[in-house]
Amino acid sequence: MSDTPSTSADTDAERPLRILIGADTFAPDVNGAARFAERLAAGLVERGHEVHVMAPAASRKHGTWKEVHEGQEMTAHRLYSWRWYPHDWLRFALPWRIKQNSAKILDRVQPDVVHFQSHIIVGRGLSVEAQKRGIRIVGTNHMMPENMLEFSLIPKAWQEWAVGLAWKAARRSFSRAESVTTPTRRAADFLERATGLRGVHAISCGIDAHKYAPNWEPRTENRIIFVGRVTHEKHIDVLLHAITLLPDELDVKVEIVGGGDQKRNLENLAAELGIADRVTFTGYVTDEELREAYHRASVLAMPSIAELQSIVTMEAMASALPVVAADAMALPHLVHDGENGYLFEPGSAEDLAAKLRLVLEAAPEEYRRMKEESLRLIAAHDIQRTITTFENLYRGKPVTDPVTDNAPAALSE
């Protein structure tokens, strides 16, 4: 057999790809799914691939143009969008035009692969039209329909029915994909149970760990930080109630970093609880300001019960922070109880306060051990490994899920 075919095949297998990433939320939106899509797109451009992003326009201006994200230039196809006013910033592409828009962009770009980040609108249109054209499809799920209920205006009596419909819609879109991924094994198991899909890959969103640095200076105060969207599903109220249960001598300060529709309500709650002078709501911050906030903090508190991975928790770990997190969804895969922090009973302010005390009252050598353990555990979540895994999926190669989320046996499902 001639060597020529295999050499040609090898060359073709390694050629740069033209990749179309579809997302219902993308920068300048600030949330885990948008940040992952942005970092993935930038990392792929840095490796020499041609990347196009299809996402709702962030304003009334829509069309195709070049955008720079994470220092890398890519082509953005911004769809005409409407603002969803029950939410504080969300804009969405028009569902009844999504197939037409997807067809037009696919025919213009002619990608080697389509990678959609949400099945709701953009992913639905792209998966339908890409399948018609025989284009390889990869789908990633970052969403739980239950998290969208408070913004949906659906009456409570109908919400269970609506969640069932949402998961059926997810099954239809993801079943068109050659490969389906989600950030952790627990999230993958959840998606398989909810949709009946099989073979869902657990691939970490990953972070650029080198962008975060530990602060080894001795602590001069007890500062608890929360980072994320200030919305109901994050359960920040549980954290505020927990603060009232901590001893006065700890003189705890709290920093809530992020914006959202619950900011005013939580400010009022802090005032009602008598802790307003100890709680700072920063709103949205720059990346540099966020890194400084991690350096100021003693511990990250993550009371959310619906995290499919939690990029914030990974950023805190890369900053060598101990973490106290709810024992729910994917968080136990990042926070190993008694090692780099503690897990608390979801919704329990009493248990959260008790676990925060274990960190804040730890002897200096024990506190440093938790910091070092966070750094050790986050090493497996390097975004370069994530990008390599997706490159292989884009080329149709078999992949082995990176081992990134081995929770202690007692916490396994």
Automatic annotation (TrEMBL):
<dbReference type="InterPro" id="IPR028098">
    <property type="entry name" value="Glyco_trans_4-like_N"/>
</dbReference>
<dbReference type="InterPro" id="IPR001296">
    <property type="entry name" value="Glyco_trans_1"/>
</dbReference>
<dbReference type="Pfam" id="PF00534">
    <property type="entry name" value="Glycos_transf_1"/>
</dbReference>
<keyword id="KW-0808">Transferase</keyword>
<protein>
    <recommendedName>
        <fullName>D-inositol 3-phosphate glycosyltransferase</fullName>
    </recommendedName>
</protein>
<dbReference type="Pfam" id="PF13439">
    <property type="entry name" value="Glyco_transf_4"/>
</dbReference>
<dbReference type="InterPro" id="IPR050194">
    <property type="entry name" value="Glycosyltransferase_grp1"/>
</dbReference>
<feature type="domain" description="Glycosyltransferase subfamily 4-like N-terminal">
    <location>
        <begin position="30"/>
        <end position="209"/>
    </location>
</feature>
<feature type="domain" description="Glycosyl transferase family 1">
    <location>
        <begin position="218"/>
        <end position="373"/>
    </location>
</feature>
<keyword id="KW-0328">Glycosyltransferase</keyword>
<dbReference type="GO" id="GO:0016757">
    <property type="term" value="F:glycosyltransferase activity"/>
</dbReference>
